[in-house]
Amino acid sequence: MTRRIPLLATLLVPTLALASGCDLFSQLSQHTGIVDVFTTSHGTPDDEGNLPSHNGHQLVFTNDMGWDVFIDEAYVTTSAVTLLACDGERFDIEMYWGAQAENLGATADAELAAAGGVRANAGTYCDLVVEYGPADTVDNPAAMGATVYLAGSAVMGDQHIDFIWRSDIELETQVDISDIEAGQPFAISTEQHFSKKLTVSKTYNHFFDGVDFNDELSQADIDDLVADSLDRGTVAFEGTNVH
Question: Coil, helix or strand for 206?
Answer without folding.
Answer: helix
